[in-house]
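Supplementary notes for students who missed Thursday's class. We covered one full example, reproduced here. Read the sequence, then the structure, then the short commentary at the end.
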Amino acid sequence: MTTNPSATIRRRLCSLFYELLLLGALALTVSAVMTGFQAWLGKSWLLDVLTQLALLASIFGYLGYSWVQRGQTVAMKTWRLKLVRLDDGGLVDWRQAGFRYLVALLLLVGMPAISYLAWSNRLGHGKEAMLISLAWCALPFLAAFYDKDRLFLHDRLARTRQIEVAKAPHPGKGKPRAE
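Structure (token representation):
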């Protein structure tokens, strides 16, 4: 097991917020490219499905590659976090990265969508159904307050954790000045 401490919940949430901004930019870029295809080829349900798949694949490509190669996305590097396996502290492989991505996708997109469909039948398509369904988005993060290791639910299920990485020394510090 690695000797680096687990990252604080605050640090992980701050990194997640930054990550959402980066993923939003990636999604806008992919959508712009796919919109060009739709303008060129015409609108169709097949192109709509391909657009959704392109969005999912590009986001997983960015996250998966970052987790497998370095254990860090751009946001995680900024916040000095690293994703490692829970059991031995090593980097995750593609299978584990894919599982973590799918679990997080199910928890953060699938469950709110299913909840909205269920509540909108009962309450109508209003704000109440939307708010209740969005409450599901908090579940994976609130689980950290009850987890013995303070892991988010998707990390617990994927057997991963985020550790804090020590700050690298400044390259100019500690060197004598040339006069």
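Commentary. The chain has one domain: 9-164. DSSP finds seven helices and two strands in the chain. If anything here is unclear, bring it to office hours.
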